[in-house]
Amino acid sequence: MSTIERPPRGVLRRPARSDTDALAALMAEAFHDDPLTRWIIADDAHRAELLPGFFKVFIEISHDYDGVSVSPCGNAVVLFLPPGASQEVDRREDELAARFGEVLGDHATALGTIVRLQAERHPAEVDHYYASFAAVRGSHRRRGLLSALLAELLVRADRGGYGTYAETSSPGGEASCRAVGFRRLGEDIVLPDGGPSLRPMWRDPR
């Protein structure tokens, strides 16, 4: 199969850390009604209040590994970890648990459940890129912004001979992954107590 083409010049950029608050607000808006965040924080108003801080931590983690890509207009973002970084993040478990505890309070327990279930299914036997989050502002969806950002990540993965792993929590997220060559990887990760599911996805290097 052919490799993904490099996105046109000007399709993406690496943001500065000073952009973190704006990106966290974008992601909070995009994920406000996502089944996963609703399971973590059931109350709509409380979820809107807490999600910017929640995503700020994830953005800062990705920044530590040069793993933040943003469209030039600032309306789409992909967070990822390069090969080997997931293991380093795992070793920061206590530090990150404390940071999420400060942001989420009692809701950090639900996040801990998700992280544990994700870790059980993460393909640790092979080095890979991990696309952890992708978001597009509601008013800018269906414009190809997310596809361009994912394509940039996959070009990087292909050049290094690495696969790419992701988990999707919505049909739209799964469709975006399938459009660039991801396939389902095993059974869904089902959250307890009638919670939603995450679908593991994998793309081989090309």
How would you concisely characterize the structure shown here?
The chain is of the alpha+beta class and 206 residues long.
Descriptive account of the structure:
There is one protein chain. This protein has 206 residues and is α+β, with helices and mostly antiparallel strands. Helix content is 46%, strand content 17%. The protein has eight helices and seven strands. Strands 1, 2, 3, 4, 5, 6 and 7 form a seven-stranded mixed beta sheet that branches. A hairpin with a 6-residue loop joins strand 6 (189-190) and strand 7 (197-203). The radius of gyration is 16 Å and the shape is globular. The model is unreliable at 1-12 (pLDDT under 50).
The termini sit apart by 7 Å
- The percentage helix is 40-55%
Biggest β-sheet strands, sense, barrel: 7 strands, mixed
**Discrete helix count:** 8
Oligomeric composition of the shown chains: single chain
Q: Which term fits the overall shape?
A: globular
List the helices and strands in order. HHHEEHHHEHEHEEE
Strand content: 15-25%
Class from secondary-structure proportions: alpha+beta
Q: What is the number of beta strands? A: 7
pLDDT < 50 runs, ≥5 residues: 1-12
**Cα-atom Rg, whole angstroms?**
16 Å
Mean pLDDT metric: 89
